[in-house]
Inverse folding.
């Protein structure tokens, strides 16, 4: 088992295209959070959704990170090589009655899943997926910027898919298994994943796995207010000083002094020394989450 006393952060991109500015911000934030406290920074390629993977994208991502001076500790891991771990976790959930086969298609589920297959597959239906069985207790977690947030999974999410019968394991299960197996102690990522966190905390509890420290970063948005992503036309970043300064500014961090010029390595060293997550601004809290009652 990994040493739990060592701070371990991670960056987990999907190989669906080149590194864009939003992904750079996430990578930089997770790197600085771990390294500023003497920790390790791991790199994991989330390549389970194979139809979306782009040939050469992984190599491009890794080269870009290295050009910015964001070097990772240990070997790169890939989710496609870790399928047995996810299968073992699913079997544990099934054996404990915390997951079950479901015969409903997406067309059968309008909005919140009604629990159709909780007590067994309806007659004539075959398994299409496996779902995690939620309960009526609120799931709460602490975020370093947002404070303690809670969600009623039963009312706001419903039993959620952890694997398609003929497809890949769901992100929610894979990320929980990976973080625990790699000894990740903190998860620093975009605020678009705040809403996913209660599902992951519920899975951690069901599998007897530790809950890491969470820190969700403000999203980079387009002029129209949408999250900057490959789907919204995000362009590949160029590894230069201006881009790095812009990413640090988005995280509220002090600008490296001009005497460092365009030396990205020295700029990263400076940013690591002076990093303070309390300078980071927050996004709006998703409607499905609520601050814990005082």
């Amino acid at each position: 088992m990994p040493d739990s006393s060592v701070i371990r952060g991670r960056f987990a991109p999907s190989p669906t295209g080149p590194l864009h500015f939003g992904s750079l911000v996430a990578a930089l934030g997770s790197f600085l959070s771990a390294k500023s406290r003497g920790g390790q920074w791991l790199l994991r390629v989330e390549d389970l959704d194979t139809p979306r993977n782009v040939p050469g994208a992984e190599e491009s991502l890794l080269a870009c990170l290295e050009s910015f001076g964001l070097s990772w500790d240990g070997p790169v891991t890939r989710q496609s090589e870790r399928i047995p771990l996810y299968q073992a976790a699913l079997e544990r959930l099934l054996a404990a009655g915390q997951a079950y086969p479901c015969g409903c298609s997406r067309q059968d589920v309008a909005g919140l899943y009604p629990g159709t297959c909780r007590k067994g597959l309806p007659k004539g239906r075959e398994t299409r997926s496996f779902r995690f069985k939620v309960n009526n207790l609120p799931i709460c977690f602490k975020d370093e910027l947002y404070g303690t947030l809670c969600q009623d999974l039963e009312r706001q999410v419903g039993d959620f898919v952890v694997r398609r019968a003929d497809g890949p394991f769901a992100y929610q299960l894979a990320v929980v298994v990976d973080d625990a197996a790699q000894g990740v102690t903190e998860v620093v990522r975009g605020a678009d994943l705040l809403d996913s966190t209660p599902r992951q905390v519920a899975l951690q509890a069901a599998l007897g796995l530790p809950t890491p420290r969470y820190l969700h970063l403000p999203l980079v948005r387009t002029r129209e207010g949408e999250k900057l992503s490959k789907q919204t036309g995000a362009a590949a970043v160029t590894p230069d000083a201006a881009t790095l300064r812009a990413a640090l500014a988005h995280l509220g961090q002090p600008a490296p002094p001009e005497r460092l010029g365009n030396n990205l390595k020295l700029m990263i060293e400076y940013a690591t020394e002076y990093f303070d997550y309390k300078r980071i601004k927050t996004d709006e809290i998703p409607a499905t989450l609520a601050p814990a009652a005082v």
Observations:
- The two ends are 37 Å apart (CA to CA).
- Residues 8-82+140-149+173-291 form a domain with the Rossmann fold fold (CATH 3.40.50.620).
